[in-house]
Amino acid sequence: MQVPVAESTSESQSWDTDAFSAEEQWLPLEMDMANLDLPEEQPTEDAGWGLPDQVAGELIGNFFDNVQTWLGFVHRPTFYRRYMRCAGQQATLIGRPTLSDDESFMIYAMFAMAARFSTSEHFTRTPIHDRGERFANHAATIKDSIIKTVEEPSLEFVQGCVMLAFYNFAAGQFGPGVVLSSVCVRFAYELCLDETDEDQLDEEGLAIIDMPHENAESWLKKEEKRRLWWSIWELDTFASTCSFHPFNIERAEMKVLLPAPNHNWHCSIPARTAFIGPPESAWNSLQKSPGQSTRAWFLVANYLKSTIIFQSRRSFRHGTISRCRLETALCNLKLSLPDAFHLRSLYLDADNHQDAMWVIATHLMIMT
Question: Keywords, A to Z (predicted)?
Answer without folding.
Answer: Metal-binding, Nucleus, Transcription, Transcription regulation
